[in-house]
Design brief:
By secondary structure, this protein is an alpha+beta fold. The chain is 45% helix and 17% strand. It is built from twelve helices and ten strands. The protein has helices spanning 4-20, 26-32, 39-51, 68-76, 86-97, 102-117, 170-184, 192-196, 205-223, 250-257, 259-267, 317-337; strands at residues 55-56, 65-66, 120-124, 133-142, 145-152, 157-163, 230-233, 275-278, 290-297, 305-312. The strands form three sheets. It has a five-stranded antiparallel beta sheet with strand order 7-3-10-9-8, with helices on both faces. A three-stranded antiparallel beta sheet has the order 4-5-6. A hairpin with a 2-residue loop joins β4 (133-142) and β5 (145-152). It is elongated, with a radius of gyration of 26 Å. It starts with a helix and ends with a helix.
Length: 338
């Protein structure tokens, strides 16, 4: 374990390197930070930190930079994330409050996160499997054609066309709508198949084919992988960090284009707490020069999806974590009120 003094030196190196983009020397550390020890002691502490793999010398200059291991310790020992100013909090609330539907909420969240952190923002759409049913609507389009509209507690709307085996009367449709909603409203999507399995038997023989067809389309909608959707924004921000990526930025951009990679990264985030993956902790080789900060968001105690940012390992971790957490909290509030 590092002594408190060496931890303080590591913290100072991380802060200076993130702020200046320049390798940090012992002279600069003693001038900028009140470490309470001589430059010789700082040099000795830096030698120990380098020996233990927390900092490294990028070239023959006197300066040192944090390694993935150094950033990891810095993040693990953070006393707290950087709080947003009241002006920033108001700006977040005002920007997200203007959203008109779920797609708009997700789009605004991506833009906001990218602007606040100046990194690449990634937001996953709320998962159907974690949602509950708010309402099921059945609308007649033609004598034997119905539109099924499924609305979730997160404001997500799924629409499907249903071609029925015979013409459907308005009375039958109204009856099915009422009975269906009485069983499924407020219930988890995963519970719905069991809740409706005996519904056709409660109708007259002539209507059972239509009821079964409508239910089949409803259940198909529930099990589709449509929740595996995400939105990404702020990729252009990476161009500001060209020198932070060894050789080229191309592997990072290629990895960001693969939705399955990003979904896996977000999936590793815990539902409640903040998850930070640094450098080589990320399994995908193309992202080994980046860090990912992610957290779950939702309309209640349980997360319905994840959001986060991807940026270089030379990242303002306290500020980024504070912004990601604040945005997730506001998005959750909007979903709860929608």
């Amino acid at each position: 374990m590092l002594s408190e003094r060496r931890l303080k030196v590591l913290r100072a190196i991380v802060q200076d390197y993130v702020g200046t983009e320049e390798p940090v020397g012992s002279k600069a550390l003693t001038e900028r930070h009140h470490l309470g020890v001589s430059p010789a002691t700082v040099r000795n502490d830096m030698a120990v930190l380098e020996e233990e793999g927390f900092i490294a010398q990028p070239h023959t200059s006197a300066g040192r930079i944090p390694t993935d291991k150094g950033y990891r310790l810095f993040v693990d020992r953070l006393a707290g994330v950087k709080p947003l100013s009241s002006a920033e909090r108001r700006a977040i609330q005002n920007f997200l409050d203007g959203a008109v539907d779920l797609d708009d909420v997700v789009a605004r969240t991506v833009r906001l996160l990218a602007q606040l952190t100046r990194q690449v923002a990634v937001v996953q759409y709320p998962s159907l499997t974690r949602s509950t049913v708010r309402h099921v609507e059945l609308l007649p389009l033609a004598p034997a054609r119905v539109m099924l509209v499924l609305i979730t507690d997160t404001g997500r709307v799924e629409q499907r066309m249903v071609d029925c085996p015979a013409p459907v009367g308005e009375t039958t449709l109204a009856d099915l709508r009422a009975r269906l909603n009485s069983r499924v409203v407020g219930r988890r999507f995963t519970d719905v198949p069991q809740l409706v399995q005996d519904l056709p038997e409660s109708f007259e023989q002539d209507d059972r084919g239509t009821v079964s067809t409508v239910l089949a389309v409803l259940l198909e909608t529930l099990v589709e992988d449509t929740e595996e959707r995400l939105m990404i924004g702020g990729t252009a921000n990476l161009t500001r960090f060209g020198h932070d990526f060894p050789l080229t930025i191309r592997p990072v951009l290629e990895a960001l284009e693969e939705q399955v990679v990003l979904l896996k990264l977000l999936g590793e985030a815990s539902d409640s707490g903040m998850t930070v993956r640094i450098g080589h902790e990320i399994a995908h080789e193309g992202l080994n020069s980046t860090s990912v900060v992610a957290v779950g968001y939702g309309s209640g105690d349980e997360a319905v999806a994840k959001l986060g940012v991807v940026g270089p390992t030379r990242m303002d971790y306290p500020g980024t974590m504070g912004a990601v957490r604040a945005v997730a909290r506001y998005v959750g509030q909007i979903l709860a009120e929608s």
